[in-house]
Amino acid sequence: RGIDVSNEIVQHCDANFPELLHAVYLVNVPPVFDVLYALVKPFLSESVRKKVHKFSGPFESFAPQLRDRIDPELLPVCYGGSMMGPGEDPRCDALLCGGGNIPEKYFITLPVDDNIQHLNVAFMSTEYIRLEIKTAGSII
Fold first, then answer.
1. Which of 4, 91, 94, 120 has the maximum number of C-beta atoms within 10 A of its C-beta?
2. Confidence of residue 9 (pLDDT cuts 50, 70, 90)
3. How far is the C-alpha of 14 from the C-alpha of 41, rounded, in Å?
4. How many alpha carbons fall within 13 Å on the CB side of residue 9?
5. What is the spatial distance between Cα 121 and Cα 113, in angstroms, rounded to a whole number?
6. Cβ of 76: how many Cβ atoms within 10 Å?
7. Radius of gyration of the chain measured on its C-alpha atoms
8. CB neighbours of 79 closer than 8 A, spacing ≥ 6?
9. pLDDT tens digits for 27-66?
10. Residue environment code for 108-139, b if the CB has 16+ CB neighbours within 10 A, otherwise e
């Protein structure tokens, strides 16, 4: 059922928002990408699949293809373009949102409680539990 819903969502987005994506250029992505993309690819239309371009290996082996597809002013210097990031950064790292440390204000401290129960739910199974919440703001 989950795969059917996922397929419907992808088809809906593809049919109703076809030109939101001009192209995706993936450079030296980790090997797990191939596995994940293989799972998603059957749900994508041919037009969307044609917009995904993956480059791997030594930069020199794919640099000409990148330069042919991307305006040099929009391509970082480290990929053969002319765009420099703040502080003359050839990788333009400041322009990327690569995650980082989670601010401590988002940390939570769980109280030590010997009455805490754990439930492991097997893949594709359902478990029902009854919870009695006695304190407002409790963490479930």
1. 91
2. low
3. 13
4. 7
5. 22
6. 20
7. 23
8. 27, 59, 63, 66
9. 888 888 888 889 888 878 888 888 888 988 888 888 888 8
10. eeeeeeeeeeeeeeeeeeeeeeeeeeeeeeee
